[in-house]
Specification:
By secondary structure, this protein is mainly alpha-helical. The chain has one domain. Helix 1 packs antiparallel against helix 2 and helix 2 runs antiparallel to helix 3. It has three helices and no strands.
């Protein structure tokens, strides 16, 4: 889960820097794909974890990771 969040954060930083430098959004297409892929992978993991018969835990960490991505 942390790997997906780290990948999404790294991609977001590249996108943010490129846009602030006046570059076209199309020039960071691969980073946009990485950001979206990280978000989708994280959402799938959270969903699969909740559907597991062995799930007994607190999903606060996953919730916060998704909130960070949603905020960006």
């Amino acid at each position: 889960m942390l790997a997906e969040l780290a990948a999404a954060n790294a991609a977001f930083q590249v996108i943010k820097q490129a846009v602030s430098n006046g570059r076209d959004i199309a020039s960071v297409g691969s980073q946009i794909a990485q950001f979206v892929d990280g978000k989708e992978t994280l959402q799938k993991k959270v969903s699969n974890k909740k559907n597991s018969p062995f799930y007994k835990g607190n999903d606060f960490e996953e919730f916060m990771a998704l909130e960070v991505i949603k905020e960006k």
